[in-house]
Amino acid sequence: MYQTDHGLFDGDSWERLCQVCFRLKYSEEGYQPIEASPGDFGIEGFTRTGRAFQCYCPEYNYAADELYKKLRKKVTTDLRKLITYEKELKKYLGKVKIKEWILVTPHSRKKDLVRHCNSKAEEYRKKALSHLHKDFDVMFMDIDFFAKELPIALGQVDIQVQLTCTIQPSAADVANWGSTQSSLESNAQRKHRARFNPEPGDIEERVGKLTTKTIFNYLEGNEKLRSWEELYQDRYERFQKVTSHFERRVEEKCLIPVSNNDKLLNEIRQELTNRLKTEFPELDILTIEDLSEHAISKWILECPIDFT
User: Fold this and answer.
1) Which of 245, 297, 248 is nearest to 269 (CA)?
2) Which tens digit of pLDDT belongs to each residue from 81-126?
3) Residues 22, 53 contacting (CB under 8 angstroms)
4) Are 181 and 219 in contact (CB under 8 A)?
5) Does residue 176 belong to any structural domain of this protein?
6) What are phi and psi of 104, to 5 degrees?
7) Are strands 51-55 and 45-46 parallel, antiparallel or unpaired?
8) Which of 207, 211, 222, 308 has a 20 to 30 Å separation from 9 between CA atoms?
9) Same-domain pairing of 126 and 185
10) Are the beta carbons of 181 and 52 closer than 8 angstroms?
11) Domain range holding 130?
12) Where residue 75 falls among pLDDT bands split at 50, 70, 90?
């Protein structure tokens, strides 16, 4: 599986996603998919304006050099099919001549691929194939070319988004944050201590570990929210509204004394997780749980979650 900011993909799921994106982005150009059966002709769809698309998803998140080799090989191999299946392709294309052959892949990473595409375009223009335009070009697109179409496409193909954190907070990051936000750290310590009844002999050690976990969840969640805001600003803003509204409910629940504060906290956590599942079905369960933990950690560090 290949990890992207929008989720995990294999060859089949990537092609399904791309086909929806093509239909959305190029509907006015008369996009026409080509089924893989009975054979792969080197394109998986085309427009009446002469764009032809081939999808490719690597098996793994290769290093840049290895990924370039995979992409270069894919371009070279699939372009040969334009020669092998010239007669078959003309039956699908009709009067359309392919002006742009476009490899669509999650990431490219190396500019060397541009040079390779330019070289292959020049090579194939010289072949003067009957179904290729005289100005034939070879290009590639990555996932960012379909930023506008992705939210709709992901929902249609039932692929859930998994928000990632590029750099996870380190132990030093957690410690530094606690030293600069001592009042918030003290809030967390006080509230975690109130979860124990009766208090164990090693309560301070346990409170310390819970506080560290809270700060970690808060910092990691901030990074994932920043990623979400960049990718899907409208859904990020919806999340802020949902959690802000839910926060008022949390404040009210915490005003009522209970005999078991830990049980109350877990009830709040579960209720929030269920609410996020309903509101954001496009997010995978791990992301939902991480966002729930972020909100809980924020409320522990600040004021909404408190124990009377």
Assistant:
1) 297
2) 999 999 999 999 999 999 999 999 998 877 889 999 999 999 999 9
3) yes
4) no
5) yes
6) -110, 115
7) antiparallel
8) 222
9) no
10) no
11) 2-156
12) very high
